[in-house]
Amino acid sequence: xxxxxxxxxxxxxxxxxxxxxxxxxxxxxxxxxxxxxxxxxxxxxxxxxxxxxxxxxxxxxxxxxxxxxxxxxxxxxxxxxxxxxxxxxxxxxxxxxxxxxxxxxxxxxxxxxxxxxxxxxxxxxxxxxxxxxxxxxxxxxxxxxxxxxxxxxxxxxxxxxxxxxxxxxxxxxxxxxxxxxxxxxxxxxxxxxxxxxxxxxxxxxxxxxxxxxxxxxxxxxxxxxxxxxxxxxxxxxxxxxxxxxxxxxxxxxxxxxxxxxxxxxxxxxxxxxxxxxxxxxxxxxxxxxxxxxxxxxxxxxxxxxxxxxxxxxxxxxxxxxxxxxxxxxxxxxxxxxxxxxxxxxxxxxxxxxxxxxxxxxxxxxxxxxxxxxxxx
Length: 376
What we know:
- The protein is 31% helix and 28% strand.
- By secondary structure, it is α/β, with parallel strands linked by helices.
- The longest helix is centred in the C-terminal third of the chain and has 21 residues, at 255-275.
C-alpha cells in the first residue's frame, strides 16, 4: 500500500474533481505537493498542465511519465468519506489515482536522484477531450523537454488487481466525433412539397452507414460507427424542417482504417445529400489517433514488471476506448500499459467507480524500475 501522504493526496484530488481545461485547483494542489520533493524545474504547459523536472549530473536520456488531471461530467454515486464535493463532476476514470502514482514516483526519485539525463513528470490537462496532449505536444515550451522515452498507464477494471497488461502494437483505438450538418429549406407543414426536409436523407444515411460499417471486410481491423445524436428542425407542428444534424463517433484500431472509414462515411453522406438537394457540411471534434506502443519500451515495462514481482499478460486485441497519449506515441518512443483494478471493480465512467488505493504502489514500482534502467 502506498504511504499516507500519497493516499491523502489521492483522496483530496478525488474529492475536488475539475473538468477538462479547468483543472486550476488540481494543478495548484499538485504543485504544492511536488514542491515538497524539490524538483529542479517546474514548467507550465498548456492551460493548466505542469511538468516537474529532475536533472541528472551527467548527460543522458530524457524520460517522461504522464498523468492526467481532468475529471468527468458525471455525478458520483458512492458513500466515500472523500466523495466529490463538486456536484456533477467526478473522477470516474481514475485520473486521481494516476496522479497519485506519478506523485509517489516523485517521492522515490527525490530520494535517489538521476545520475544521468533527466526525468520529467508531466501532469496533463484535458485528456478526456483529446485537447490536452495535443496542446502540450504543440507547445513551444515542450521543446525544452522532447523526451527520448515516454510512459503512461491506465487502470483497467475487470482485470485482476495489480496485473500489468501489455501490447507491442496498438493499445487503444483511434476515434473522432463527426458532426454532419444538412441544410434544406423550411416550409409550412401543410405544404412540405414547397420545402426541402432533411428527414428522408437522415433515414437513408443511417441505413447506408450501418451497411457500410457492418461490412468489416472493407477494413484491416475493427472499425465502428455509432450514431450518438440527431437533431431535426424545431418543435413546431406547423413547420416542415429545413435543417438537421447527425452526430456520430467513428472508431478504429488502425489509423489507416480511420482514414478509410472517414472517407467512406463522407462519400455516402455527400451522395445522399446531393440526391435529396441538400447542402452538407462536416465538423470533427475529439480526434484521438490510435495509441501505438514502441516495442523497446514495452520490453522495458515487461522487465520492470518482473522485477516488481507482478503478474503480466499481453492483450489479444486493443481497447476500444481512446487515449490522447497517442499524441506522444506518434512522435516519441513510448508505451502505455494497463494496471488491473480488480475483476469485480466498477467500470470506468460508472457513477460508483473509485480508483483502488491497493494498486497505487504497483504502478509506482513499475515506473521506478523503468527509471532505474534509463537514468542510473
